[in-house]
């Protein structure tokens, strides 16, 4: 992969996050499903936004957060996603480029506005996400830049994209281009509810197109319809080159053809907001993976990055990740 110019190309929903603290009873009052990501329409987005407390707004989206983490570690990243030529679209584009991630996807000039995710954070640090996809739904095969894909060591997609046919086609196109060029392909399953919606096609995707799979315990159990993590572990090792499976405070398990590696969770003084934990785990892991580190080191890097992001509000790094991982690599 000596001829590559980029470490990772991320493909995802270009979203501006709005985060706000709330009480448990607020979720009940608003009829929200705790810890889930729920797709909402424009009217619901306006209604929920009006009922949120003081918020923090920042560019987000799962794959966008991962790319931000890779850039913070010193990796070279690029991003493919769709925004509208509106204020939030300009904010998202500026933020990505400002952190060092190449973002050249053409914005839409008509139709729905730039996507936003309304995130309610309860006192235990868990997040409940309500996403209006807006312009994200316009992402399709024509947005895949073949030259960009072949310039990267690995491409990374968020499972949330699997909700829409055009986005599915876009990712399959990108995966085929990557493999034909000798590159690798990775995906995060994103959310157990997302897996529930698309289980069979996700299984086919993992088996036929994915080299590196990211999932948490609930997602991987849902994928294979089993009741224990151990059963899911036995299944997944037969279907992709590497699986990086996170288990919250239990750490993570990295699986390949011939090894199973357990990585402890990094200590955290106080869990403030779990938004982005999986995204930043993927940042650390992929950074290590593209730099040729062994899988145990990749898992450790992921744990360090995840621990950093759950210690504060927001899904992007708040401290110097290079300094945090300096003793690990």
UniProtKB/TrEMBL annotation:
Keywords: Kinase, Transferase. Pfam families: PfkB. GO terms for molecular function: kinase activity. The keyword Mitochondrion does not apply. Residues 59-318 form the Carbohydrate kinase PfkB domain. Belongs to the carbohydrate kinase PfkB family. This is Carbohydrate kinase. It comes from Thalassospira alkalitolerans. The lineage of its organism: Bacteria, Pseudomonadati, Pseudomonadota, Alphaproteobacteria, Rhodospirillales.
């Amino acid at each position: 992969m000596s001829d590559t110019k980029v470490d990772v190309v991320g493909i995802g929903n270009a979203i501006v996050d709005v985060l706000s603290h709330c009480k448990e009873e607020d979720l009940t009052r608003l009829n929200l499903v705790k810890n889930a990501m729920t797709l909402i329409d424009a009217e619901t987005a306006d209604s929920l936004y009006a009922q949120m407390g003081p918020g923090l707004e920042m560019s987000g989206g799962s794959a966008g957060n991962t790319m931000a983490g890779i850039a913070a570690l010193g990796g070279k990243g690029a991003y493919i996603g769709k925004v509208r030529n509106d204020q939030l679209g300009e904010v998202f584009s500026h933020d990505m480029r400002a952190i060092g991630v190449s973002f050249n996807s053409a914005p839409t000039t008509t139709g729905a506005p730039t996507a936003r995710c309304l995130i309610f954070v309860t006192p235990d640090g868990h997040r409940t996400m309500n996403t209006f996809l807006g312009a994200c739904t316009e992402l399709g095969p024509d947005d895949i830049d073949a030259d960009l894909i072949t310039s990267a060591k690995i491409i990374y997609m968020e499972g949330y994209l699997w909700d829409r046919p055009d986005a599915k086609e876009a990712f399959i196109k990108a995966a085929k281009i990557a493999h034909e060029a000798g590159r690798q392909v990775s995906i995060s399953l994103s959310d157990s509810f997302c897996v529930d919606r698309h289980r069979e096609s996700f299984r086919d995707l993992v088996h036929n197109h994915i080299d590196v799979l990211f999932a948490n315990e609930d997602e991987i159990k849902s994928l294979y319809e089993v009741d224990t993590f151990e059963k899911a572990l036995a299944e997944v090792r037969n279907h992709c080159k590497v699986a990086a499976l996170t288990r919250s405070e239990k750490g993570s398990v990295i699986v390949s053809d011939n090894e199973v590696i357990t990585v402890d969770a990094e200590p955290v003084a106080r869990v403030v907001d779990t938004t982005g934990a999986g995204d930043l785990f993927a940042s650390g892991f992929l950074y290590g993976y593209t730099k040729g580190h062994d899988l145990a080191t990749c898992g450790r890097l992921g744990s360090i990055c995840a621990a950093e992001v759950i210690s504060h509000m927001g899904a992007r790094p708040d401290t110097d990740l290079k300094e945090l991982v300096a003793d690990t690599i």
